[in-house]
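pasting for the record
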Amino acid sequence: MSAAVLSKRIALFAASVFSVSAIAQTGIDVKAATHVGELYACLECHNPTIKVLGPSFKDIAAKYRDDKTAMDKLSAKVKKGGVGVWGEIAMPPAAAIKDDELKLVLSWILSH
């Protein structure tokens, strides 16, 4: 099994484990957010609880917890891509993601 397939399976497992508590605590539709994360390959590099290639959702949420502009900053980061904030592995841009999908995924990420 390739590392990419293994990391995706781990991400999906973790997302399903945490989905019930996340829905109860935040009202976020985790199933829909997971679908968007899969559609745009977010879950190839990110996981709710552990670092894969990119930071975990938990680490992202902790970094931006007190930042009132986090949604805008992260929206721009996702759409434009970038490198250097979390290391030297570049995050490719996801310019095609719809604004409502992006808001859903970022709300899920920041809820951790």
